[in-house]
Amino acid sequence: MRLHPTRFLVALPLILAACADGSRSPMAPLAHAGDVRLAARDETVLPSGELLACPSDAGVTGSAVIGRDGGSLSVGGHELVVPAGAVPKATLFTIEAPASDVLEVVISADKRKDYKFKSPVTVRVSYARCADAVLPEGALTAWWIDPATRSKLGEMPGIDDRASRSLTFATDHLSGYAIAYRNGKGGNEDEQ
Q: What is d(CA 160, CA 31) in angstroms, rounded to the nearest whole number?
């Protein structure tokens, strides 16, 4: 079951506080003066936007086994933080940021890209590889995508932290994720 955007916004401060307190996560504090907070949208009209073009001819991949006690996996500035109880058994998680013309990350569990968690996890996607010239003035947003087609399947509301050049969001499932301009700003106008 996918986390409803309204429930996510209610749970986000609790999730981020749990991850930022240092007890289970090596993540840096998530709140900075330069944060751009993203709000949920009306579900009937999904916000659109151009995927962020940050070409790279070098990909990164990493894996780690995370069990019932929780844990984290960091690869190339991207991070998955799994709280205690989110997985029923030791599971091999993989983060892959392929060489690509857009900034995308695929996270899988035991080689499955459709994994569902028992409770939400935190994902941080780094856009540190992107040149300043390609970044819009407005907020960036993360999208759940089909890794094969790059079709945008749903927005992942979260925090755009310009100081660390990363987007952090909570999710209850794994997939491919990409970063996009919010509402097409900085790229083409809104898609319909």
A: 10
For residue 109, give every residue at least 6 positions away whose Cβ sits within 8 Å of its Cβ, in sequence order, or none.
Answer: 87, 91, 92, 93, 94, 115, 174
Distances (CA, A) of 145 to 24, 152, 172, 175: 28, 5, 15, 7
List CB contacts of 94: < 8 A, sequence separation 6 or more. Answer: 61, 62, 63, 107, 108, 109, 111
Cα dihedral 123, 128, 133, 138, rounded to 10, equals: 30
As a residue count, the chain comes to 192
> Are residues 30 and 19 in contact, defined by beta-carbon separation less than 8 angstroms?
yes
Question: Are 158 and 132 contacting, i.e. CB atoms less than 8 angstroms apart?
Answer: no
- Among residues 141, 138, 147, 89, which one has the least CA distance to residue 113? 147
| Residue 63 vs residue 151, higher pLDDT | 63
Q: Which amino acid is residue 57, in one-letter code?
A: D
Is residue 74 within 8 Å of residue 62, measured between CB atoms? yes
User: Do residues 184 and 140 make contact, with C-beta atoms less than 8 angstroms apart?
Assistant: no
Q: Which of 93, 97, 98, 141 is nearest to 121 (CA)?
A: 93
Query: What is the pTM for the complete model shown?
Result: 0.70
Kindly report, residue by residue over 23-78, the tens digit of the pLDDT.
333 333 333 333 333 333 333 333 456 888 888 888 999 999 999 999 999 999 99
